[in-house]
Design goal:
Bound molecules: 2-(butylsulfanyl)adenosine
Shape: globular
Strand content: 15-25%
Distance between the termini: 46 Å
Helix content: 25-40%
Number of strands: 22
Length: about 675
Amino acid sequence: MTDAERILYLRRELHRHNHNYYVLNNPEISDKEFDDMMHELQDLELFHPELDDPNSPTRRVGSDISKEFAQVAHRYPMLSLGNTYSEADVREFYERVRKLLNEDFEVCCELKFDGTSISLVYEDGKLVRAVTRGDGEKGDDVTQNVKTIRSIPLMLHGDYPRSFEIRGEILMPWESFETLNKEREAREEPLFANPRNAASGTLKSQNPAVVASRKLDAYLYYLLGEDIPGESHYENMQQAASWGFRISEHMKLARSFNEILDYIAYWDTERKNLPVATDGIVLKVNNLKQQQRLGYTAKSPRWAIAYKFQAERALTRLNRVTYQVGRTGAVTPVANLEPVQLSGTVVKRASLHNADIIEGFDLHIGDMVYVEKGGEIIPKITGVDTGSRSFMLGDKVRFITHCPECGSKLVRYEGEAAYYCPNETTCPPQIKGRIEHFISRKAMAIDGLGPETVDLFYRIGLIKDCADLYTLQARDIAGLERMGEKSAVNIIHGIADSRQVPFERVLFALGIRFVGATVAKVLASHFKSIDELKDATLTQLMEVNEIGEKIAQSIREYFSNETNLDIIERLRKAGVQLEREEKDEEQLSDSLSGLSIVISGVFAHHSRDEYKHMIEQHGGKNVGSVSAKTSFILAGENMGPAKLEKAAKLGVKIVSEEEFLHMIGS
Ligand code: IVH
């Protein structure tokens, strides 16, 4: 194979694997194999600039070139939709269409995605241009940025028209949005108000590498062009899916007004379980000829309409502000509200985030405040209705200066929005919070113990830190509130079993500030024992990959505290793992020796990466795709149909998660 052929081959394969992974959620090869192919392609392209292709999968990575966006005219204007807010409005739309058409018609019901709209132009199966809506006539050319979005195909497959335009919505999934805002908060950068702003802000970034890092997604919902294949919108969307586009799987054809209402009622609540923000339903007359007959008004099509969900917002009175102290001592202000109904539940309390937000709202007791449920479970205050303030203004809300639990003077660390109670050693919620963290699933995973039990044990003086757990006796706790003999024994067993928990998780369980599960893992693979870590200097700590000054300092602080050193000594006596066991990283067994194993689907007990690791630890080999040489497939839920079929054809065995764990004796 010549280099040129190899380049073409790699590009084709990488486009295909991208689609499998990002659109179909069904990867055929491992991440490593994907990365290897990508690196090979990058290297080859470096040597062959003459074979440059602006749509090569390597362009997804995002370059550093920044430039002003060029303005581009839309071939077809980007119209908006008429909005409706009630069932009556929807009925009006339906009746109008019925009168105008005077024949049977179907309505395609779909979700109204709340992101930023985009127009994509494809020529000969290649993405040539991506333009924002702009003023509807012309928009910004954001092609380079859009190319970094993995679910937007750069190259199509199947039987696509030579030239067409497809429109859709670019979105930032809730999860990415929350992570992004957390990172911004830590860096004291302004927060994005909602995923829509985050998506459009990101899309307008001058740096494609930033866009690439922000995990945007896209759904396409409108196909335009001279030679598009179908006679209906729905058919066109199915076709578009077959060329590689991500189309919502929640589109539905309605043949009556009642079916439309059912769709609206269903999604009004069900949309809360979607990974992306939606703000309504879009209704489109399905048949293209009928669409044409209905035509357009100056601003919007007569064949489509948007129904907007009720904003999930309520107005209620602020009665008082209380303060919660967390495990780290961070103090969170909580608004206590006049109970109000908000999307199915009664809300009495809402988060006020931090002192700056309270100050920003110029909040007074008795104010009428807006409460919203965002993607988070805890509702938040999003505004104050100053118009409804009477001349008798209540007290101004001022952030407390002392800890409500232990009375210590609060401190504010540089670069952080939160106030902290510095009394780590005797402030009750901090102590209980640390014990709760210690026993939690990702830490020591002590069965039978939960926050209520911890609270009880602490209240009656049985424990005052995590090391005390190991001195508990069944007879001390049997007979306590709601505690039978059996649960008492379970708890004691659970605590005893936690002595086997590996060092890296113990390190995480200690609850050292800024040492999360990942950092703990890094530390445990670098320092062999807690003593090595304890003796490490600031410089030595900072030499470790991924450990910055902030973390290093916090570790030093932790080990310079006498109380913490005492806890460690007592944990050591109790037999908790305070050093790395050699077997943590070495071969655990050879029960899978000589076997080639493919992992597929979604798992309940461990992550994919953990399973990969286990396979290696037990002498097996991870392979990406199913072949006759595959020993078995470790299959979770939702294994792709293509893989299943292939496995059946080749007679490759399917092994469930439980069977697998049994095989390796776990
Ligand atoms: S169709 C001519 N379908 O809502 C019809 N729009 O005001 C073009 N939107 O600008 C739009 N989800 O950004 C359509 N399933 C969907 C949509 C959708 C969200 C946005 C789009 C448009 C606005 C309508």
